[in-house]
Design a protein that fits this description.
The chain is mainly alpha-helical. About 55% of the residues lie in helices and about 5% in strands. It folds into two domains: about 70 residues, Arc Repressor Mutant, subunit A, CATH 1.10.10.10; about 35 residues, no CATH class.
Length: about 120
């Protein structure tokens, strides 16, 4: 599993780990039942404190994206893939991002084109 972590980013490392795993699942690089590295292994691989990886895994578990079993470790869940994709939280996040783009001068057409391009990348 290859995660792209930017140590200089303002985004916390645990959040970047979470996001990279979500991207991997969304793009089909990881599927339900796939095992994730142990907390210690992933921490060593990317050079971070194991507590950072533990925090990312805990967040993913809370969101239903992974399940953690003492015998088998962390693996991608199928629970999180069957939920309501367009809940209030999703709408709020998208609305906020669109509002920020609009504040910065993006037109409705610019935003639609940009979002369409991102959707195409995710579904490649």
């Amino acid at each position: 599993m290859i995660l792209r972590i930017d140590m200089t980013s303002d985004i916390p490392i645990y959040q970047q780990i979470r996001n990279e795993i979500v991207f991997g699942v969304a793009k089909g690089h990881m599927k339900a039942g796939d095992l994730l590295p142990t907390v210690r292994q992933l921490a060593a691989d990317i050079g971070v404190n194991p507590m950072t990886v533990n925090k990312a895994y805990a967040l993913l578990r809370e969101e239903g994206i992974i399940v953690i079993d003492r015998r088998h470790g962390a693996q991608i869940s199928n629970r999180g893939m069957n939920g309501n994709a367009f809940d209030a939280n999703f709408d709020q996040q998208v609305e906020l991002l669109i509002s920020e783009a609009r504040m910065k001068g993006a037109s409705k057409q610019d935003i639609q084109k940009h979002i369409s391009d991102i959707i195409d990348r995710v579904y490649e």
